[in-house]
């Protein structure tokens, strides 16, 4: 340690919100260069290399072959698939000295497709699976969580190329198993959830989420059936449609000063309508605007949800992707005077030609209390299918614990997780866009079908920290720890230094990498650093040496035992 390029910090970095960010910086594993952009120091590099090694071994084991693409890429392939614009502000775009457009790769489907197109011709060349471990660039909107969400980060991405749907399914399943093995070896607990494939297009898709409070993904599961899905992928079961003609007539009421659902419900309950209303009887109309990236013009969209639920922006974003979506600002209201803030209703939206999508619960025959498009007025018993007809449904309302599982299995429970990996069956979208075909056995061309699979490599380092660290510092699972053991020389007695060196040499000879704290620091400083740095096993050479023993501490459990000097190497190996 006296020669290790390392400085530990006593204070958490001011900008750090999550445990992994605080600890990886304090323990001298990473340093921030700019928001979402980090440098890796020697200890961090060792963990990163070990994570990569596990991933490479498991990818190689399913027959995937490693390649490498540049991060700096020309515009054209991304133009061909539409992603040059679809990626929106997340894409880092730049120009070279000749003013030609380039980008920093956020993901590499296009390049892999073109490589396979260039190197293959007949059905005999398939199936094939390729992967790389490469730096990705995404100008993330919220790079808040340290290396959990970087703007520059490392990803293992792989792509399978098959000629048949069954082949794609096999490649997908092989990845699924490989990912389970990878995360088990990395010491990461993961939950596999159904996912949306979003901007990537394609069909079947699952995410591997590491359950943890710092996670930015919310998922739900049904304990009874094992159903699990990212909330973005949860579909709302629609109640049965009802007759419209037995419903009371829609009546507009004065409801002064009721801009919120709560004030509205209170007021309507004072009208003496012979029923008690709750927030779930109201229809809340949230105004947003959408646009296709690069299209310039924003279009208004009304989103109707039952008033006891909020609109979940992440679900809404996923539902309208690849279009971008934003809430209306004051200027938008000013430009559209027919929008009476707080009193917007489906009738006014229809009159003004505004597209209106509703939560699947708002089926024909359901009656609602909603805005009457005039300041201080609401309508009661506005019936869907009779008084208004939405343009369609949208999955934008929040999903809550206790909601019925889409598979009919009972109530859902909710939890948070970090997206560690994503696997999906892309299908033929990229092959079609870029003309990847193979000559079949019958001489006819076959369009190749693809799968795309990603693991966050740098993110894994942070996620492991989130799941294992404690209040004293980092705790590394053996497979990824920078060093298997950390030896502390507790006192000044030269015999201790000598014994510690002997142990270190013995462990090294047994194939274990060890960190030896030979610094002239106080035992307190050394122990605090050892706990902060998080090697799985701590060997303390101190007073016990007089009786021929050293202390061996397990970092994760805190369990200590005395081990005779001559048994240490055997005990740790
Ligand atoms: P997220 O929803 O967290 O933004 P994503 O859906 O955009 O992730 P993919 O495009 O599927 O992610 O990328 C594959 C993997 O790369 C993810 O499962 C995740 O582990 C990792 N990853 C994605 N974005 C980042 C990032 N900004 N920083 C670190 N790792 C990331
Ligand atoms: Mg993302």
TrEMBL record:
A Pfam family in this protein? tRNA-synt_2b
* Molecular function, one GO term: aminoacyl-tRNA deacylase activity
User: In its UniProt entry, what is this protein called?
Assistant: Proline--tRNA ligase
Q: What is known of its domains?
A: Consists of three domains: the N-terminal catalytic domain, the editing domain and the C-terminal anticodon-binding domain.
Which biological process terms from the Gene Ontology are attached to this UniProt entry?
prolyl-tRNA aminoacylation
Aminoacyl-transfer RNA synthetases class-II family profile domain ranges (all copies):
31-477
InterPro entries, per database record: aa-tRNA-synt_IIb, aa-tRNA-synth_II, aa-tRNA-synth_II/BPL/LPL, Anticodon-bd, Anticodon-bd_dom_sf, Pro-tRNA-ligase_IIa, Pro-tRNA-synth_IIa_bac-type, Pro-tRNA-Synthase_IIa_type1
Q: What is its EC number?
A: 6.1.1.15
Primary location: cytoplasm
The lineage, from the top, is: Bacteria, Bacillati, Actinomycetota, Actinomycetes, Pseudonocardiales
Organism of origin: Actinomycetospora cinnamomea
User: What role is this protein assigned?
Assistant: Catalyzes the attachment of proline to tRNA(Pro) in a two-step reaction: proline is first activated by ATP to form Pro-AMP and then transferred to the acceptor end of tRNA(Pro). As ProRS can inadvertently accommodate and process non-cognate amino acids such as alanine and cysteine, to avoid such errors it has two additional distinct editing activities against alanine. One activity is designated as 'pretransfer' editing and involves the tRNA(Pro)-independent hydrolysis of activated Ala-AMP.
**What is a single cellular component term in the Gene Ontology annotation?**
cytosol
**Compartments where located:** Cytoplasm
UniProt keyword S-adenosyl-L-methionine, yes or no: no
Q: Which reaction does it catalyse?
A: tRNA(Pro) + L-proline + ATP = L-prolyl-tRNA(Pro) + AMP + diphosphate
The record describes its quaternary structure and partners as: Homodimer.
Q: Which PROSITE patterns match?
A: AA_TRNA_LIGASE_II
Keyword entries, A-Z: Aminoacyl-tRNA synthetase, ATP-binding, Cytoplasm, Ligase, Nucleotide-binding, Protein biosynthesis
Homology family: Belongs to the class-II aminoacyl-tRNA synthetase family. ProS type 1 subfamily.
């Amino acid at each position: 340690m006296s020669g290790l390029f390392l400085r530990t910090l006593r204070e958490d970095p001011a900008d750090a919100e999550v445990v992994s960010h605080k600890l990886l910086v304090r323990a001298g594993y990473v340093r921030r260069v700019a928001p979402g952009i980090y440098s890796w120091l020697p200890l961090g590099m060792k963990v990163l290399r070990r994570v990569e090694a596990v991933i490479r071994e498991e990818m190689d084991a399913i027959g995937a072959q490693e390649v490498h693409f540049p991060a700096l890429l020309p515009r054209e392939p991304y133009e061909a698939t539409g992603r040059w614009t679809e990626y929106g502000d997340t894409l880092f775009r730049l120009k070279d000295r000749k003013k030609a457009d380039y980008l920093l790769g956020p993901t590499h489907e296009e390049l892999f497709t073109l490589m396979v197109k260039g190197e293959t011709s007949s059905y005999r060349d398939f199936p094939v699976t390729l992967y790389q471990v490469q730096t990705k660039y995404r100008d993330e909107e919220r790079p808040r969580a340290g290396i959990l969400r970087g703007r520059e980060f490392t990803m293992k991405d792989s792509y399978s190329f098959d000629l048949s749907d069954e082949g794609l399914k096999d490649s997908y399943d092989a990845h699924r198993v490989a990912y389970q093995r990878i995360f088990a070896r990395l010491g990461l607990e993961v939950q596999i959830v159904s996912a949306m494939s979003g901007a990537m297009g394609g069909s079947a898709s699952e995410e591997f989420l590491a359950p943890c409070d710092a996670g930015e993904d919310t998922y739900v599961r049904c304990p009874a059936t094992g159903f699990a899905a990212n909330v973005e992928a949860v579909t709302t079961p629609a109640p049965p449609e009802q007759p419209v003609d037995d419903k009371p007539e829609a009546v507009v009421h004065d409801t002064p000063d009721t801009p919120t659902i709560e004030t509205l419900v209170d007021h309507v309950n004072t009208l003496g309508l012979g029923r008690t209303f709750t927030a779930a009887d109201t229809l809340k109309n949230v105004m947003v605007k959408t646009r296709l990236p690069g299209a310039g013009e924003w279009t208004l969209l009304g989103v109707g949800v039952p008033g006891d639920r909020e609109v979940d922006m992440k679900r809404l974003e996923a539902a309208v992707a690849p279009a971008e979506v934003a809430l209306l600002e004051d200027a938008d209201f000013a430009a559209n005077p027919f929008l009476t803030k707080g009193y917007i209703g489906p009738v006014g939206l229809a009159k003004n030609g505004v597209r209106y999508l509703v939560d699947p619960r708002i089926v024909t025959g359901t009656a609602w209390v909603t805005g009457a498009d005039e300041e201080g007025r609401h309508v009661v018993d506005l019936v869907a299918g009779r008084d208004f007809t939405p343009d369609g449904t949208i999955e934008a309302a929040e999903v809550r614990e206790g909601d019925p599982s889409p598979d009919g299995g009972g109530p859902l429970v909710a939890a948070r997780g970090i997206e560690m990996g994503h696997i999906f069956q892309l299908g033929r979208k990229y092959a079609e866009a870029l003309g990847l075909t193979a000559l079949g056995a019958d001489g006819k061309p076959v369009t190749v079908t693809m799968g795309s699979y990603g693991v966050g490599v740098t993110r894994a380092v942070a996620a492991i920290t989130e799941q294992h660290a404690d209040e004293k510092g980092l705790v590394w699972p053996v497979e990824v720890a920078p060093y298997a053991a950390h030896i502390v020389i507790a006192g000044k007695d030269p015999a201790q230094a000598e014994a510690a060196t002997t142990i270190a040499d013995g462990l090294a000879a047994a194939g274990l990498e060890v960190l030896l704290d030979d610094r002239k620091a106080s035992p307190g400083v050394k122990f605090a650093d050892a706990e902060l740095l998080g090697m799985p096993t701590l060997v303390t050479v101190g007073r016990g040496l007089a009786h021929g023993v050293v202390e061996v501490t397990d970092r994760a459990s805190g369990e200590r035992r005395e081990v005779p000097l001559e048994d240490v190497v055997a005990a740790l190996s």
